[in-house]
Every structure is written in C-alpha cells, then in structure tokens.
Amino acid sequence: MRIRVCFLGGLLLAASLPGQYRPAPANLEARRWFQDAKFGLFIHWGIYSVLGDGEWVMNNRKIPFADYEKLPPQFNPVRFDAAEWVSLVKAAGMRYITITSKHHDGFAMFDSRLTDWDIVDRTPYKKDVLKLLAEECHKQGIKLFFYHSHLDWHHPDYFPRGRTGRNTARPESGDWRRYLDFLDGQLRELLTNYGPIGGVWFDGWWDRPTADWRLEKTYRLIHELQPAALVGNNHHRLPFEGEDFQMFEKDLPGENTAGFNTDAKIGQLPLETCETINKAWGYNKNDQQHKSARELIHYLVRAAGHNANFLLNVGPRPDGTIQPEFVERLREVGAWMKANGDSIYGTRHGPLPPRDWGVTTQKGNKVYVHILKLEEEVLGLPRLAGKIGNAYRMNGQPVEFTESPLGVLLKAPLAGRDPLDTVLVLELL
Ligand code: FHN
Predict the structure, then answer these.
(1) Distance from the alpha carbon of residue 28 to the mean position of ligand 1, in angstroms
(2) Please, which contacts does 360-364 make with residues 24 or more away whose CB atoms are closer than 8 Å?
C-alpha cells in the first residue's frame, strides 16, 4: 500500500491516499483466523440442481430465461437439514463454509427484498436456506462466507452482455448502473440480515473484464457493514485494491493445469484454492469421477505447503441432501485431520518450497515434513534455520536423523510409512 507522508508542525504524519484501502484491525485478525483455519467446504447449490447437469446448465443448453423460470416451482429441498450439513463440516475437520448466495443464473438462495427471483418467493419450499444455515453455523462455531456472482444470466439490467449467457432471450437493453445498484443492494442484505459473515467470494467479473464494476464502492460497502468480512474475487488476476484474500481455482498457487491461472501471480494476501470432489461444482447426476479421500488429503496437504487454504466443493441434490460419495470422503478426510490436524491448522508454509515428494509446513519451532510420495528410505533436506532438538512421527515414534553443514538426513523406513501421508515433526532449538 502506498502511504502519503506529510510534515505538519514538525510532526510526521502518515495518511492513506483517498480511495486507498486500509484493512481494519478486525479484518487483519480475520485474515489470520482464515489462514489458521486452512480447510473449508464450498457449496454450489441452486435451482439448477433440479436438472442434475451442473450450475452452467442454463448457459450450456441455451435455456431462455422464461423456460428457466420453470425450475423454481420444482425445487423443494424438504430433506435439507442445516444442522446435518454443519455437523458434516465439523466431522470433515473444516472450519468454514462458502455457499452460493447467487450463482450466474442470478437466482437468490435467500430472501431478497430487491427481487422475487429468490427461493422464498418462487419455490414451494419458501424458506431462506441461508438464514437456516447461518443460524446453525453460529450455533456450531463455523464461519459462513457467501459466494456471490457478479455475472448474471437472468437480470434484465445485466447489459451490455458479457462473454456468457447470450442465449437467454432477454431484451437487448438494460441499465448497467441499475444492475450494480441491485448487486450492492443484495450484498447489503447479506451483510445485514445474517449475523457476522466470514466474507464474500465474488465470481464472474471475468465475464466483462473491461466493464466498470464499481468494485471500490462495493468493497467499501462490505467493509463498512462488516469490517472483519474478507473480500475475495475469483477474477484470476493479482488481487485488486480492497481485497483481503486471493483465490485459485482447481490449481495450487503458482500452477496452471486447469487453465484458469494463466497470469495469476501470487500476491501478498492470504491464499485459498478450491477444487471439486468429482468434476462438477453444481450437482451433476451423471458425474461419477470421484477423487479418492487420499487424493483429497494430498490436495489439502499440498495446499498447506503452498501456504494456501483448501476449499473443497460439494453440489447438494435438489432434495437438500449431500450425496453419499461426498459424505463418505469428507468423513475420511476428517478422520485424517483428527489425527494429523496439528500439522495443518495454524501452520504456514514450511522452510522448503513444495517438492514432488511432498511439502513442509511450520508452526512456531515445529517443522512438519509431509512425505506423500517418496521411494527412498532417507530424505535429504537443506540446512534448517535452527538445530533439530527432537524428531518424531505424529504418533510420537522417534525419527532417526543426522545434521551436518550440508543439511539434514531423515530416516523414514518404507515399512513404517503411512499410505496417506507420513508426517515427521522436527522441533527446532
Ligand atoms: O463459473 C464458475 C463456476 O461455475 C464455479 O463457480 C467456479 C468455482 O471456482 N468458478 C467459476 C469459473 O471461474
């Protein structure tokens, strides 16, 4: 952040330039909490789940908005149980939830006074699921973030149109400023009516990258309403002014296997990466390509080694349940976190950059060496910042090591390896 320094009556004053964002102390504290929390549940849930073909179905099947409006009357999640969802989150070892308040189809999963294109006004269920979830999260000590789409395939004022949602048969006119007022109005509702909110996770800016999104005004509104709420925007760029964390999609920071992070450099803010369990974000009834619990644990561990949180997604079904393949895996990851969470929660990346064999994390004087894939019995590390006073496995079993001016050798016998992650703890003096 650039600081203007001026002399006044011999006093040296530092003041931020107009329009410059200075995070409140509560915001800085929330960032630390976020980095310590490490693991959250992403939930893509909306009326699209009725079709069981992902959250992009309106765009992909070129459904005109008048036809798409036939979905809400079929959306009746009578089996939705907020307490069950939040308990699952806790069993998975997660500390927060990020749920879609509005995805690209513009449908509000909460009771919005600004439109009747919402769950209370249009569905037979008639209940504000975000309210139910927020109450349960507060009760069970889980933070709640809202995913809110900038992009909107339904709102008539989302005009000029962006790269997507061009086949929804809306009139070719609209008032962009009115759309932005609507967007801010909904955010005001979300940050006023649901208690303390962890933050807002924006997505869809990339649909109109050259438009004036008035981000500064929107971000200011959020921070004024709730200074501790963290703002993140999935624009796949370095963070913009006013943002509090940087996210990556389907890739670890610095990698680009999925094609979203073409020019996403790693900035100074807390990091998060999100990934799906199968291939889809929103419920897809035909997608059976589920990642194993082992793969998901490795993703979580590698994310921590990259200094990033892991936001793992589920797309609940239209009846309000989470499919068993997801539940099973979340519980397995949770069991691993229960035994090994000390090497993840509250850590930052360790002294070594991530490697193919694994990663390191660190908390205070403890360095955690996560061996994920190593054929040798002995692991060589460069010299660490301090001498090793003690080395042991997470279960307390001692680890043999030698130190020399060249570095550290750690013995990790193949016979005793944990098939998920062999974690060695090095206590530095
Ligand atoms: O288009 C969305 C997609 O539906 C999903 O919400 C993901 C989550 O990171 N983000 C977008 C694409 O960048």
Answers:
(1) 27
(2) 360/305, 361/304, 361/305
Ligand 1 centroid, distance to 388 Cα (angstroms):
44
Mean pLDDT, range 105-116, rounded to an integer: 98
The rounded Å distance from CA 243 to ligand 1 centre is 18
User: Which residue, by CA, sits nearest to atom 3 of ligand 1?
Assistant: 281
Helices (H), 171-292: 176-192, 215-225
Cβ–Cβ < 8 Å for 158, 178: no
For the cut 80, the answer to whether the pLDDT of residue 12 exceeds it is no
| Residue in 60, 101, 249 to alter for ligand 1 test, most ligand atoms within 8 A of Cβ | 249
Q: Alpha helices, DSSP H only, in 158-214?
A: 176-192
Mean pLDDT of 319-337: 98
User: Which residues have C-beta within 8 Å of that of residue 294, sequence separation ≥ 6?
Assistant: 419, 420
SS3 content of the chain, % helix, strand, coil (to 5): 30, 25, 50
The residue whose CA is least distant from atom 1 of ligand 1 is 204
Query: Ligand 1 pocket: which residues have CB below 6 Å?
Result: 55-56, 203, 234, 249, 260, 274, 281
Whole-number Å distance, alpha carbon 100 to ligand 1 midpoint, is 11
Number of the ligand 1 atom closest to the C-alpha atom of 260: 13
pTM of the model: 0.95
Ligand 1 mean position to 14 CA, how many Å? Answer: 40
**Mean pLDDT computed over every residue of the chain:** 94
Burial class (CB in 10 A: 0-12, 13-18, 19+), 233: buried
Q: How far is CA 139 from CA 82, 93, 100, 134, 423, in A?
A: 11, 17, 20, 9, 33
Residue-level pLDDT at 262 = 81
In total, the chain counts a number of residues equal to 429
CB 209 within 8 A of CB 237: no
Give CA–CA dist 141/80, Å, rounded: 20
| CA nearest to 337, candidates 311, 374, 291, 301 | 301
Q: Which amino acid is at 322?
A: I
Task: State pLDDT tens for residues 33-64.
Answer: 999 999 999 999 999 999 999 999 999 999 99
